[in-house]
């Protein structure tokens, strides 16, 4: 089987995203033979994001995504994949462990029945993973990253947590009692890919498909902070689970996106980790061990004396007139941000493509640089006082990496302009930092 699959084919990535792969072409005997469907679909991600941007401009006169929010969402997606540089997917590793030691039956890998059974099993498990990620506070601490954008567009789909994968593997283990890892490895990717295109406001209604499938219309509700939207529509590919288990809601009032209490920052590490710190501080306000533990294992809205999930009576009222956080900053600075983001994206892609040939020390160093860059760019968007100094230090590291061949230009013919741009960036931020220090000194004097 799988004779029709073409490794590295962009068309395969497109069909994988829209569930158009047949069991015959996407069933494999060994895990090593399973294509990297998500990687194949990367050009499709870019193409659809650009298409959404163009269509939204033509339709509404405004872009579907802002530079600040879009870069932050893509940065979150980049950070979420960094652990894969040092280890295999937690979900697949744990799955193979259970399969090797505890499987009850061994369904045939080359059967269409196995393929469809796995499709349903993975989506069912995802429903409960997603639901408990909203109903258990320490799981929500990871998942809230995905809900932190106040916009709803295709870049929002990429805003993922770096820590959720360390708990999500538990929910897929029941499937490992019967389904070969190679078939699971296909469907865990298909389930993820499908959920990309439903993050858009441009598709309003898909008619009869709305009854069975998760669609942009259903998923918009899930991302809303309106009272009727909270804790609804958890489905991955199928919406039938929400209909069966009473968590379905129809889109009615205008959906206002984001967290109940917006964090109003684009600093990437803070977005990833702030809720863990919040839970710790909140637990310290309680005296009993029971209440301290409940802070982590009960719902985010829970308070002592309430039911497991608490209630949303204290949520800020949603009027429908809320405006997303979008700090004003100059066009030249936005261009600067985009160019430097493209440079770090190039390093990021090279890192994943060549990870088998790089030493662990080199991988660690380049990973730290990626995190430093994304953090510094977030500081610039937030217009923090320390942004200039941090960006100057980052530019020093960048010039060093360029000198020793760890940073390549986007196009070989742009090697000299890229080197000049990097050097000018360092000079600019050095002058900015020096000016800032002089200003502080004058105030002190």
TrEMBL record:
Q: Which one Pfam family would you cite for this protein?
A: FA_hydroxylase
Q: Which family does the record assign?
A: Belongs to the sterol desaturase family. TMEM195 subfamily.
What is an annotated GO biological process for this record, any one?
A: membrane lipid metabolic process
Domain Alkylglycerol monooxygenase C-terminal span(s) in chain numbering: 333-419
Ranges of residues in domain Fatty acid hydroxylase: 117-247
Q: Give a yes or no for keyword Disulfide bond in this entry.
A: no
* Location relative to the cell: Endoplasmic reticulum membrane
- Protein's UniProt keywords contain Nucleotide-binding: no
Which function does this protein serve? Glyceryl-ether monooxygenase that cleaves the O-alkyl bond of ether lipids. Ether lipids are essential components of brain membranes.
The protein's name is: Alkylglycerol monooxygenase
Q: How does it sit in the membrane?
A: Multi-pass membrane protein
A GO MF annotation of the entry reads: iron ion binding
């Amino acid at each position: 089987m799988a004779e029709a699959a073409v490794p590295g084919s962009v068309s395969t990535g497109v069909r994988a995203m829209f569930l158009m792969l047949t069991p015959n072409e996407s069933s494999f005997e060994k895990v090593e033979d399973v294509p990297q469907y998500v990687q194949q679909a990367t050009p499709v991600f870019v193409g659809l994001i650009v298409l959404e941007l163009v269509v939204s401009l033509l339709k509404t006169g405004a872009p579907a995504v802002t530079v600040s929010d879009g870069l932050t969402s893509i940065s979150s997606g980049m950070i979420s994949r960094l652990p894969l540089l040092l280890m295999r997917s937690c979900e697949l590793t744990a799955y193979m462990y259970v399969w090797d030691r505890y499987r009850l039956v061994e369904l045939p890998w080359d059967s269409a029945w196995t393929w469809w059974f796995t499709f349903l099993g993975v989506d069912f498990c995802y429903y409960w993973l997603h639901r408990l990620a909203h109903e258990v506070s320490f799981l929500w601490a990871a998942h809230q990253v995905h809900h932190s954008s106040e916009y709803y567009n295709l870049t929002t789909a990429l805003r993922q947590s770096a820590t959720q994968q360390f708990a999500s593997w538990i929910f897929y283990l029941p499937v490992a009692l019967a389904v070969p890892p190679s078939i699971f490895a296909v469907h865990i990717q298909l389930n993820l890919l499908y959920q990309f295109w439903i993050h858009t406001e441009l598709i309003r209604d898909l008619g009869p498909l709305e009854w069975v499938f998760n669609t942009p219309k259903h998923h918009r509700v899930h991302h809303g902070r309106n009272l009727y939207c909270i804790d609804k529509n958890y489905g991955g590919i199928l919406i039938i689970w929400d209909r069966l288990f009473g968590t379905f809601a129809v889109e009615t009032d205008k959906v206002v996106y984001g967290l109940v209490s917006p964090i109003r920052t684009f600093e990437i590490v803070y977005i990833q980790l702030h809720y863990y710190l919040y839970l710790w501080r909140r637990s310290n306000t309680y005296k009993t061990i029971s209440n301290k533990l409940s802070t982590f294992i009960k719902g985010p809205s829970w308070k002592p004396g309430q039911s497991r999930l608490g209630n949303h009576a204290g949520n800020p009222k949603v009027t429908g007139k809320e405006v997303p956080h979008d700090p004003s900053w100059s066009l030249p600075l936005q261009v600067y941000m985009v160019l430097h983001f493209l440079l770090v994206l190039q390093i990021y892609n090279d890192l994943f493509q060549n990870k088998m040939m790089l030493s662990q020390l080199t991988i660690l160093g380049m990973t730290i640089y990626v995190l430093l860059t994304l953090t510094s760019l977030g500081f610039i968007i937030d217009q923090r006082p320390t942004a200039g100094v941090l960006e100057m230090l980052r530019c020093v590291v960048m010039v060093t990496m360029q000198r020793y061949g760890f940073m390549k230009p986007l196009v070989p013919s742009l090697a000299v302009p890229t080197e000049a741009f990097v050097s000018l960036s360092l000079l600019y931020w050095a002058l900015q930092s020096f000016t800032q220090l002089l200003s502080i000194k004058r105030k002190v004097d």
